[in-house]
Amino acid sequence: MSDPMSPSDAPPDVSPATNLLPAQRRQRIIEFLRRHGAVTLAQLEQALGVSVSTLRRDLDTLADRGEIDRTHGGALLRHQDYSTFEPDRHAASALAAGEKAAIGRAAAEQLQPRQSVIFDSGSTVLEAARAVVQRGIALTAVTNDLAIAQILGASAQIQVHVLGGVLRPGSPTLIGDALIQSARLIQADVLLCGAHALTDGLISETSADVAAAKRALIRAASVRRLLVDAGKLRPRAFMQVAPVAEFDEVLTAGDVPADEIERLEGLGVKVTLVTG
């Protein structure tokens, strides 16, 4: 697991809460959830800089007041349709940033020079793209994410193919029928895929268009690796993408329950818990 954030490294939407009154700290938690929709205790501990026992009491109080719903190891914001809730893109990148970077490095280390690799859209896959460029290996890369394409394009050794499509509002992600048709012509060596949620062996997304794009990318690769931090082990979102059993490996990091690892391995999926 990555080292805890220092106060200066905390996500921009929160700040250390050690000197706040309980009511102020709980309001900070609510603000955090309004941006992310869901959160784990480990993520709150890292972001707010207070103990897990204190945070448990805060979440219990907020649940008793009807403001949140408690989950295993975390909470959801009540009074919203969580299944279609789309977190702020910049906030999502800041959440569990250390875990995402560690997963990205591990995924990049597994790649072999001159492989063809599909980089799905998402903040954790973006970290893998950064790590690939730092490795300096030659690849043929395919992506439906303009931010990832820009990062990969900084390397003279990576040939970048951007799948055509419609730009999703407020996002660097390309979606739509043109993308799906283009993906049908590809058979890449590896897919690095992200997800909004992984729940009881199912991968899901908040958007039908994003889910359809991911399904097309899954079909276009021989080896499929899912990159998800512990915070993505949460209630199912609106649209099913695929059973996790369609993947060869799940790379994860953070406070992942042992029973969840056993569940995934029982489905025939290799689980790599990244610890640094």
Automatic annotation (TrEMBL):
Keywords: DNA-binding, Transcription, Transcription regulation. GO terms for molecular function: DNA binding. The keyword Mitochondrion does not apply. Pfam families: DeoRC (PF00455), HTH_DeoR (PF08220). InterPro entries: Carb_Metab_HTH_regulators, DeoR-like_C, DeoR_HTH, NagB/RpiA_transferase-like, Tscrpt_reg_HTH_DeoR_CS, WH-like_DNA-bd_sf, WH_DNA-bd_sf. Residues 22-77 form the HTH deoR-type domain. It comes from the Bacteria. Residues 1-21 are annotated as: Disordered. This is DeoR/GlpR family DNA-binding transcription regulator.
